[in-house]
Amino acid sequence: MGEEEINAFLSHLATVGQVSASTQNQALSALLFLYRHVLGGDVGNLEGVVRARQPKRLPVVFTVGETREVLQRLQGTEQLVAQMLYGSGLRLMEALRLRVQDVEIEVRQVTVRSGKGDKDRVTVFPASLMEPLQNHLLVVRQMHRTDLAAGWGRVVLPMALGRKYPNAASEWGWQWVFPQSHRWRDARTRTEGRHHIDPSVIQKAVKRAILSAGISKPASCHTFRHSFATHLLERGQDIRTIQELLGHSDVKTTMIYTHVLNRGPCGVMSPVDLL
Protein backbone atom coordinates (compact mmCIF):
# COMPACT_ATOMS: atom_id res chain seq x y z
CA MET A 1 0.00 0.00 0.00
CA GLY A 2 1.22 3.48 -0.83
CA GLU A 3 0.08 6.97 -1.71
CA GLU A 4 -3.34 6.02 -3.09
CA GLU A 5 -4.33 3.84 -0.13
CA ILE A 6 -3.14 6.39 2.45
CA ASN A 7 -5.12 9.15 0.74
CA ALA A 8 -8.21 6.94 0.63
CA PHE A 9 -7.90 5.94 4.29
CA LEU A 10 -7.42 9.50 5.59
CA SER A 11 -10.28 10.78 3.42
CA HIS A 12 -12.49 7.95 4.70
CA LEU A 13 -11.77 9.03 8.29
CA ALA A 14 -12.96 12.57 7.52
CA THR A 15 -15.97 11.86 5.28
CA VAL A 16 -17.34 8.59 6.66
CA GLY A 17 -15.81 8.28 10.11
CA GLN A 18 -16.60 11.93 10.89
CA VAL A 19 -13.52 12.11 13.13
CA SER A 20 -12.14 15.38 14.46
CA ALA A 21 -9.26 17.17 12.76
CA SER A 22 -6.88 16.22 15.58
CA THR A 23 -7.77 12.51 15.25
CA GLN A 24 -7.12 12.58 11.51
CA ASN A 25 -3.80 14.37 12.05
CA GLN A 26 -2.82 11.78 14.63
CA ALA A 27 -3.54 8.99 12.13
CA LEU A 28 -1.49 10.78 9.48
CA SER A 29 1.45 11.21 11.86
CA ALA A 30 1.31 7.52 12.75
CA LEU A 31 1.32 6.52 9.09
CA LEU A 32 4.23 8.86 8.31
CA PHE A 33 6.23 7.38 11.17
CA LEU A 34 5.42 3.84 10.01
CA TYR A 35 6.51 4.43 6.41
CA ARG A 36 9.57 6.61 7.12
CA HIS A 37 11.05 5.02 10.23
CA VAL A 38 9.78 1.43 10.25
CA LEU A 39 9.34 0.47 6.59
CA GLY A 40 12.06 2.86 5.43
CA GLY A 41 10.10 4.16 2.46
CA ASP A 42 8.45 7.33 1.19
CA VAL A 43 4.70 7.93 1.40
CA GLY A 44 4.54 9.93 -1.83
CA ASN A 45 2.16 12.79 -2.56
CA LEU A 46 -0.58 13.39 0.04
CA GLU A 47 -2.06 16.56 -1.44
CA GLY A 48 -5.32 14.80 -2.33
CA VAL A 49 -6.28 14.05 1.25
CA VAL A 50 -9.67 15.40 2.35
CA ARG A 51 -8.96 17.23 5.59
CA ALA A 52 -11.30 17.06 8.58
CA ARG A 53 -12.54 20.51 9.55
CA GLN A 54 -11.09 22.14 12.63
CA PRO A 55 -14.09 23.47 14.56
CA LYS A 56 -14.00 26.97 16.03
CA ARG A 57 -15.15 26.90 19.64
CA LEU A 58 -15.90 29.84 21.88
CA PRO A 59 -14.35 29.62 25.36
CA VAL A 60 -16.52 28.81 28.37
CA VAL A 61 -16.54 31.83 30.68
CA PHE A 62 -17.88 32.36 34.20
CA THR A 63 -19.78 35.50 35.09
CA VAL A 64 -18.31 37.47 37.99
CA GLY A 65 -21.04 36.08 40.23
CA GLU A 66 -20.39 32.49 39.14
CA THR A 67 -16.67 32.95 39.74
CA ARG A 68 -17.37 34.15 43.26
CA GLU A 69 -19.72 31.23 43.94
CA VAL A 70 -17.16 28.64 42.80
CA LEU A 71 -14.24 30.19 44.72
CA GLN A 72 -16.31 30.44 47.91
CA ARG A 73 -16.97 26.70 47.76
CA LEU A 74 -13.25 25.89 47.76
CA GLN A 75 -11.03 25.79 50.81
CA GLY A 76 -7.37 25.87 51.76
CA THR A 77 -4.75 25.28 49.11
CA GLU A 78 -7.33 24.34 46.46
CA GLN A 79 -8.99 27.74 46.89
CA LEU A 80 -5.66 29.60 46.76
CA VAL A 81 -4.64 27.82 43.54
CA ALA A 82 -8.00 28.61 41.92
CA GLN A 83 -7.70 32.25 42.99
CA MET A 84 -4.28 32.37 41.30
CA LEU A 85 -5.76 30.89 38.11
CA TYR A 86 -8.42 33.59 38.01
CA GLY A 87 -6.41 36.45 39.48
CA SER A 88 -3.29 35.99 37.32
CA GLY A 89 -4.68 34.24 34.22
CA LEU A 90 -2.53 31.15 34.77
CA ARG A 91 -2.94 27.71 33.28
CA LEU A 92 -3.26 25.00 35.92
CA MET A 93 0.23 23.56 35.43
CA GLU A 94 1.75 27.04 35.32
CA ALA A 95 0.33 27.69 38.80
CA LEU A 96 1.42 24.33 40.21
CA ARG A 97 4.95 24.68 38.83
CA LEU A 98 5.54 28.06 40.44
CA ARG A 99 8.69 28.28 42.56
CA VAL A 100 8.91 30.57 45.58
CA GLN A 101 11.29 32.89 43.72
CA ASP A 102 8.77 33.28 40.86
CA VAL A 103 6.21 35.09 43.02
CA GLU A 104 7.19 38.64 43.97
CA ILE A 105 4.47 39.63 46.38
CA GLU A 106 5.75 43.12 47.16
CA VAL A 107 5.88 44.23 43.52
CA ARG A 108 2.72 42.23 42.71
CA GLN A 109 4.00 40.17 39.82
CA VAL A 110 4.30 36.50 38.92
CA THR A 111 6.93 35.15 36.55
CA VAL A 112 5.84 32.11 34.57
CA ARG A 113 8.81 29.98 33.54
CA SER A 114 8.68 27.74 30.46
CA GLY A 115 4.99 28.21 29.84
CA LYS A 116 3.19 26.99 26.73
CA GLY A 117 5.62 27.09 23.81
CA ASP A 118 8.51 27.09 26.34
CA LYS A 119 8.08 30.86 26.82
CA ASP A 120 8.61 32.95 29.94
CA ARG A 121 6.25 35.80 30.78
CA VAL A 122 5.31 38.13 33.61
CA THR A 123 1.73 38.54 34.79
CA VAL A 124 -0.07 40.36 37.58
CA PHE A 125 -0.32 39.13 41.17
CA PRO A 126 -3.65 39.99 42.90
CA ALA A 127 -3.30 42.40 45.83
CA SER A 128 -6.09 40.58 47.68
CA LEU A 129 -4.00 37.42 47.78
CA MET A 130 -0.93 39.00 49.41
CA GLU A 131 -1.83 38.01 52.96
CA PRO A 132 -3.26 34.54 52.14
CA LEU A 133 -0.19 33.60 50.08
CA GLN A 134 2.22 34.94 52.71
CA ASN A 135 0.48 32.82 55.36
CA HIS A 136 0.58 29.83 53.02
CA LEU A 137 4.31 30.29 52.39
CA LEU A 138 4.98 30.42 56.14
CA VAL A 139 3.52 26.92 56.43
CA VAL A 140 5.45 25.72 53.38
CA ARG A 141 8.71 27.16 54.74
CA GLN A 142 8.25 25.41 58.08
CA MET A 143 7.61 22.17 56.16
CA HIS A 144 10.82 22.77 54.19
CA ARG A 145 12.83 23.38 57.37
CA THR A 146 11.47 20.15 58.85
CA ASP A 147 12.51 18.27 55.70
CA LEU A 148 16.01 19.78 55.82
CA ALA A 149 16.39 18.79 59.48
CA ALA A 150 15.43 15.24 58.51
CA GLY A 151 18.08 15.20 55.76
CA TRP A 152 15.75 15.78 52.82
CA GLY A 153 14.25 19.04 51.52
CA ARG A 154 15.39 18.82 47.88
CA VAL A 155 13.30 19.41 44.76
CA VAL A 156 13.79 18.53 41.11
CA LEU A 157 15.43 21.39 39.18
CA PRO A 158 14.77 22.19 35.50
CA MET A 159 17.19 21.24 32.74
CA ALA A 160 20.74 20.54 34.03
CA LEU A 161 20.70 23.07 36.86
CA GLY A 162 20.93 20.26 39.38
CA ARG A 163 24.41 19.37 38.07
CA LYS A 164 25.53 22.97 37.65
CA TYR A 165 24.37 24.07 41.11
CA PRO A 166 24.37 20.96 43.37
CA ASN A 167 23.07 22.83 46.43
CA ALA A 168 20.30 24.79 44.69
CA ALA A 169 17.75 21.98 45.02
CA SER A 170 17.57 22.52 48.80
CA GLU A 171 17.43 26.33 48.68
CA TRP A 172 14.19 28.04 49.71
CA GLY A 173 13.81 30.01 46.47
CA TRP A 174 13.63 26.83 44.37
CA GLN A 175 10.92 25.15 46.45
CA TRP A 176 7.42 24.71 45.04
CA VAL A 177 4.81 27.27 46.08
CA PHE A 178 2.25 24.45 46.24
CA PRO A 179 4.11 21.30 47.40
CA GLN A 180 2.55 17.93 48.09
CA SER A 181 1.80 17.02 51.69
CA HIS A 182 3.97 13.90 51.49
CA ARG A 183 7.49 13.22 50.26
CA TRP A 184 8.32 11.14 47.19
CA ARG A 185 11.30 8.79 46.93
CA ASP A 186 13.52 8.42 43.87
CA ALA A 187 13.67 4.68 43.15
CA ARG A 188 17.16 4.97 41.63
CA THR A 189 18.96 7.25 44.10
CA ARG A 190 16.73 6.49 47.13
CA THR A 191 16.61 10.22 47.93
CA GLU A 192 13.41 11.84 49.11
CA GLY A 193 11.89 15.20 48.23
CA ARG A 194 8.59 16.90 47.51
CA HIS A 195 6.85 17.40 44.19
CA HIS A 196 4.16 19.99 43.51
CA ILE A 197 0.48 19.14 44.03
CA ASP A 198 -0.94 16.73 41.49
CA PRO A 199 -3.22 18.59 39.05
CA SER A 200 -6.02 16.07 39.57
CA VAL A 201 -6.40 17.27 43.18
CA ILE A 202 -7.28 20.78 42.01
CA GLN A 203 -9.35 19.59 39.05
CA LYS A 204 -11.55 17.40 41.25
CA ALA A 205 -12.01 20.12 43.88
CA VAL A 206 -12.98 22.71 41.24
CA LYS A 207 -15.39 20.28 39.59
CA ARG A 208 -17.10 19.61 42.92
CA ALA A 209 -17.37 23.35 43.56
CA ILE A 210 -18.89 23.97 40.11
CA LEU A 211 -21.51 21.27 40.65
CA SER A 212 -22.23 22.54 44.18
CA ALA A 213 -22.77 26.06 42.80
CA GLY A 214 -25.38 24.69 40.37
CA ILE A 215 -23.50 25.89 37.30
CA SER A 216 -24.46 23.89 34.20
CA LYS A 217 -21.64 25.14 31.96
CA PRO A 218 -18.97 22.61 30.88
CA ALA A 219 -16.45 24.49 33.01
CA SER A 220 -13.07 23.42 34.39
CA CYS A 221 -9.92 24.92 35.91
CA HIS A 222 -9.11 26.50 32.55
CA THR A 223 -12.38 28.45 32.68
CA PHE A 224 -10.78 30.69 35.30
CA ARG A 225 -8.14 31.75 32.75
CA HIS A 226 -10.82 32.47 30.14
CA SER A 227 -12.78 34.45 32.73
CA PHE A 228 -9.66 36.44 33.69
CA ALA A 229 -9.25 37.68 30.10
CA THR A 230 -12.94 38.30 29.48
CA HIS A 231 -13.52 40.24 32.70
CA LEU A 232 -10.47 42.43 32.03
CA LEU A 233 -11.88 43.25 28.58
CA GLU A 234 -15.26 44.05 30.12
CA ARG A 235 -13.59 46.58 32.41
CA GLY A 236 -11.92 48.30 29.45
CA GLN A 237 -8.39 46.88 29.66
CA ASP A 238 -6.64 47.07 26.29
CA ILE A 239 -6.30 43.81 24.42
CA ARG A 240 -2.54 44.11 23.86
CA THR A 241 -1.90 44.13 27.60
CA ILE A 242 -4.16 41.10 28.04
CA GLN A 243 -2.26 39.37 25.24
CA GLU A 244 1.01 39.84 27.15
CA LEU A 245 -0.49 38.72 30.46
CA LEU A 246 -1.83 35.53 28.84
CA GLY A 247 1.37 34.88 26.86
CA HIS A 248 -0.31 34.69 23.46
CA SER A 249 2.06 35.00 20.49
CA ASP A 250 -0.64 36.44 18.24
CA VAL A 251 -3.29 38.96 19.24
CA LYS A 252 -5.76 37.00 17.08
CA THR A 253 -5.74 34.31 19.77
CA THR A 254 -6.68 36.90 22.39
CA MET A 255 -9.37 38.38 20.12
CA ILE A 256 -11.60 35.33 20.69
CA TYR A 257 -12.55 36.78 24.08
CA THR A 258 -14.21 39.72 22.36
CA HIS A 259 -16.84 37.27 21.10
CA VAL A 260 -18.07 36.43 24.60
CA LEU A 261 -18.30 39.98 25.93
CA ASN A 262 -21.63 41.36 27.08
CA ARG A 263 -21.04 44.19 24.62
CA GLY A 264 -21.17 41.71 21.72
CA PRO A 265 -24.32 39.89 20.50
CA CYS A 266 -25.63 39.64 24.07
CA GLY A 267 -25.48 43.44 24.40
CA VAL A 268 -27.77 44.00 21.44
CA MET A 269 -31.47 44.56 22.11
CA SER A 270 -33.61 42.08 20.23
CA PRO A 271 -36.34 43.66 18.04
CA VAL A 272 -38.97 41.44 19.66
CA ASP A 273 -38.35 43.32 22.94
CA LEU A 274 -39.60 46.49 21.21
CA LEU A 275 -43.03 45.07 20.39
Beta percentage is 5-15%
Shape: globular
What is the radius of gyration? 24 Å
Order of helices and strands: HHHHHEEEHHEEHHHH
With strands numbered from the N-terminus, the spatial order across the biggest sheet is 1-2-3
- Which structural class best describes the helix and strand composition? mainly alpha
What's the β-strand tally?
5
Q: Low-confidence spans: pLDDT under 50, at least 5 residues?
A: none
Mean pLDDT: 88
Count the helices. How many?
11
Q: Please state the second-level CATH architecture of the largest domain.
A: Orthogonal Bundle
Our measurement of the CA-to-CA distance between the termini, rounded to an integer number of angstroms, reads: 66 Å
What is the number of domains? 2
What percentage of residues falls in helices of 4 or more residues? Answer: 40-55%
Query: So what's the CATH class of the largest domain?
Result: Mainly Alpha
CATH topology label of the largest domain: hpI Integrase, Chain A
CATH-defined superfamily of the largest domain = Intergrase catalytic core
* Major β-sheet annotation: 3 strands, antiparallel
Question: Helices and strands in order, then pairings?
Answer:
Blueprint: H1 3-15, H2 21-38, H3 64-72, H4 76-88, H5 92-96, E1 103-104, E2 109-112, E3 121-124, H6 130-149, H7 161-164, E4 184-185, E5 192-193, H8 199-212, H9 222-234, H10 239-246, H11 251-254
Antiparallel strand pairs: 1-2, 2-3, 4-5
